[in-house]
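Late entry, evening session. Most of the bench is empty. Finally got around to the prediction I had been postponing all week. Sequence below, unchanged from the version circulated by S.P.
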Amino acid sequence: MTRNEPFLDTNILIRFLTGDEPRQAQACRRLMAALADGRREAWTSHLVIAEAVFTLSRYYELDRPTIARKLGLLASLRGLRIRNKRMFADVFALYVEHPGVDYADCYHAVLAASEGCTQVLSYDKHFDLLPGVARILPE
């Protein structure tokens, strides 16, 4: 499949959210406004969202509710295409509700549930904290 829309990379989200590099941030604000009202379209991946979560928490030390709110809003922009974008509401809800569980595990729990899967093969005990998922060990 060929896409006509450009791919949106993580650094665009980071510049928009943090204001780093003022000239770039200003351009990113214009882009996000155009994506919000549908004048522009772009697409991105789930990995870009995960990378943004990591960067905002590790390097900018933003708290989970702030990250969830900001990235949740961006993921829902009208002109931004992301496969299964509706799942981000559930992922960010788990991410905020379970501070001892990292974003990737929250994502994987929601992804498994979206496929009707209730079991996760893992040694990671954090899955035990998440509703709707039973962690099982390999035998």
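Two things to note before I forget:
Residues 22-37 form the longest helix (16 residues).
The longest strand covers residues 119-121.
Will write this up properly tomorrow.
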